[in-house]
Amino acid sequence: MSRFLALLLCVPLWAFAQAPAQPEAATGFAPQASVSGKRYLAATAHADGTAAARDILRQGGSAVDAAIAAQLVLNLVEPQSSGIGGGGFLLHWDGRTRELSAYDGRETAPAAASPERFRGAAFRDVVASGKSIGVPGLLAMLAEAHRRHGRLPWARLFEPAIRLAEAGFSVSPRLHALLRDDRYLRDDANARRLYYQADGAPLAVGAVLRNPAFADTLRSIALAGPAALYRGPLGVAVAAAARAAGGDLDAADLARYRARQRTPVCGNYRVWRICGMPPPSSGGVTTLQLLGILERSAFDRAPALSAQAVHWFSEAGRLAYADRNRYLGDPDYVAIPQDDMLAPGYLDRRAGLLSARKSIVTAWPGDFPAGRSRDDDDAPERPSTTHLSIVDAEGNAVALTSSIEDAFGSRKMAGGFLLNNQLTDFAFAPDAGGRLVANRVEAGKRPLSSMAPTMVFDRRGRLVAVLGSPGGPRIINYVAQTLVALLDWNMAPEAALALPHFGSRNGPTEIERERAPEGWQNELEALGHTVATVDMTSGLQIVVRQGDLWLAAVDPRREGAAAGE
Questions:
Q1: DSSP of 11-50
Q2: Which residue of the set 385, 386, 401, 454 is catalytic?
Q3: What letter would DSSP give residue 506?
Q4: Three-state secondary structure call for residue 102
């Protein structure tokens, strides 16, 4: 028996065998009805992406096959959020072997990159430049996952996106608004021709958008595999676009890129086993730290959705984000005290710092020998990302979070797709006070991320939930809050996703603008919190087991859809 399964068997039976309840106190967005299925389910950020996944699943494709088809369509219809010009992280659960795998498709810095790359710069000065473009990793990661877990031919997975790129799709209200408001995208000639009218106005809602250049790109990758991007003319075009915009990425950087398979990070929360992505994503470690501290607090005695519950959640978040910002980075470049950060004794000590009567306000990171020479990360991670959750007929599952970082990435195009600006996820200052920052720029290095594809298991090792979200550094809070709503408050998945967001990243206590219940702000401020009401646009997609059924729900803040049979 694997070590992973042995740990799972130590956990008592999960409570989702019966239908979860919805607390009367629930508030926020009106929930969209969940979708049920006995064979398979898919939930993605756009109806066209979900339709592609469903079609592949109907053909007998695996969860990975469906995820690839959906991701390629999302690249087309949701260009602001993700695509083969960016990167991502993927969790895969094998329903037969009961093996959990983690795939790292995070971008890397070019060989010419130095720690001084962004010193003294402002995000706005570099986001739409070639200096922000890292080596794309998503396609290499998807190809590796398909090699191990795919069932249908690689080329077939490209057919839905090719058809849609040629026939066209309707511009959504969300895409129209983002095109209208973006200050940089019109400056790229290719993007201007594709997304704007002759007078510079964005394509109208409902306008048919065709992208024949992307269709050609997809055909070349369907035929030649990822080598078309990493060793072919397409890669040359990507490097040329980056260099024309002042960057230093070259074809050799693309040829050197490798997706990584990593060991998932797992931990117990009450009676469940929760697993996520390890570094260079901070999502798994920080989510587990937050929940581990929360479990050791008086959170379980606070009423659901009360200001006291928000207090405990935010305080646990301060402590977890303090450690995240100090210690996490690319494990191939920095020593990460991951086991120490998740050790029960350490979490006990961190939870002991919390008080029911007063906020910490600002938490200090814990002290680990591996990180004593480091300073805190100041990277301005952006929220333009996507997530999809899929379970197939064989019980295999995928949680995939992918991104090009800011909305429309670097605003530079090649081959009909946008290139990322993920290098701005590195710390802009490589040192502070004479100490190095773990997430400083270095050649070939992967920037720290908050992406948090997550899976939950019961005591028998059964998969019971698949979830994740966009949202930049708030992703961790979004995922942790959703887990609390499902596991502690026993909420239906659609109700959990419609709750108002809250949490702290070791700064102000953030509550969702126009969604938080009256009274939260005054009660939190009485406990010493500095409260900020802000827009908190997540994009959670979740699949949950309910007895013999699967339920899928999508975040009402975006344009997601779920489908299954």
A1: SPPPGGGSPPP--TT--SSPPPPPEEESS-EEEESSHHHH
A2: 385
A3: S
A4: strand
**Sheet arrangement for strand 561-564:** 260-262, 99-105, 87-94, 397-405, 384-391, 41-44, 561-564
Helix, strand, or coil (residue 401): strand
Q: Which two tokens stand for residue 413?
A: 């195009």
Q: Rounded to 5 degrees, what are φ and ψ at 409? A: 55, -130
Rounded Cα gap, residues 337 and 29, in angstroms: 39
Range 133-162 burial, b when 16+ CB lie within 10 A, else e: bbbbbbbbbbbbbbeebbbbebebbbbbbb
Query: For the residues of 308-332, what is the DSSP string, one character each?
Result: HHHHHHHHHHHHHHHHHHHH-S-TT
Smallest CA-to-CA distance from 118 within 106, 110, 127 is with 127
Report strand pairing: 435-437 vs 374-375: parallel
213: helix, coil or strand? helix
User: What radius of gyration, in Å, describes the C-alpha atoms of the chain?
Assistant: 22
Q: What is the largest CA-CA distance in the chain?
A: 65
Tokens of 479: 């995922």
| Spans of all domains in the chain | 3-80+88-168+210-262+385-501+536-564, 283-327+336-369+504-535
Q: What are the DSSP E strand ranges found in 109-176? A: 169-170
Q: What is the pLDDT of residues 96-137, one digit of tens each?
A: 999 999 999 999 999 999 999 999 899 889 999 999 999 999
Q: Which of 344, 378, 399 is nearest to 552 (CA)?
A: 399
Spatial separation of the C-alpha atoms in residues 295 and 285, rounded to whole Å: 15
Residue 553 scores a pLDDT above 70 = yes
The pair phi, psi for residue 434, each rounded to 5°, is 85, 5
Per the structure block, which two tokens stand in for 69?
A: 């088809």
Cβ contacts of 457 within 8 Å, gap of 6 or more = 8, 11, 14, 272, 273, 274, 275, 463, 464
**Six-digit token pair at 498?**
């419609």
401 contacts 385 by C-beta, under 8 angstroms: yes
Length of the chain: 565
Strand ranges across the sheet with 541-546: 35-37, 549-554, 541-546, 463-468, 454-457, 272-276, 265-269
Q: How far apart are the first and last CA of the chain?
A: 32
CATH architecture of 283-327+336-369+504-535: Orthogonal Bundle (1.10)
CATH class of the 3-80+88-168+210-262+385-501+536-564 domain in this structure:
alpha beta
pLDDT band at 415 (very low <50, low <70, confident <90, very high): very high
Supply φ then ψ for residue 398, to 5 degrees.
-130, 135
Is there a contact between 30 and 498 (Cβ–Cβ < 8 Å)?
yes
Assess contact for 28 and 515: CB atoms under 8 A: yes
Decide if 404 contacts 419 (C-beta within 8 A): yes
Flag whether pLDDT at 255 surpasses 80.
Answer: yes
Active-site residue flag, 385 = yes
Q: Fold match between 3-80+88-168+210-262+385-501+536-564 and 283-327+336-369+504-535? A: no
pTM value surpassing 0.70: yes
CB-CB contact of 560 with 538 (8 Å): no
